[in-house]
Specification:
By secondary structure, this protein is α+β, with helices and mostly antiparallel strands. It contains three helices and four strands.
Length: 106
């Protein structure tokens, strides 16, 4: 059996994003993700969720896609996170979105 099938699956929305997961995303999608990278699935509430996937040794993270995520990935600078623990979800601040970017999520 494939070891990857035993991975813990974790759905991560922007509020739970940590510097470690953000760094993995930027590494995997250096030019940002596009529609080919997005996985759609239904969550426990039967809502359709769109996410991009990154995998560590023991966990498959499904990070919900959003304007905030793509803006944060575009502006990524690892120096911004050097004072935080790699698993600190408070380290990744919500970006200031322009009204134009914000309206995409509705």
């Amino acid at each position: 059996m494939n070891k990857r099938d035993n991975l813990k699956r974790v759905i991560v929305d922007f509020k739970k994003l940590t510097p470690e997961i953000l760094a993995l995303l930027v590494e995997k999608y250096p030019d940002g993700y596009d529609d080919d990278h997005i996985i759609s699935f239904r969550n426990a509430n039967n809502e359709i969720v769109e996410a991009v996937e990154v995998t560590t040794e023991d966990t498959k993270y499904l990070v919900k896609v959003s304007t905030k995520l793509s803006v944060t990935m575009e502006n990524y600078d690892e120096d911004d996170y050097e004072d935080f623990d790699s698993d600190d979800p408070d380290a990744v601040q919500e970006p200031e979105l322009t009204d134009e970017e914000d309206s995409e999520d509705e």
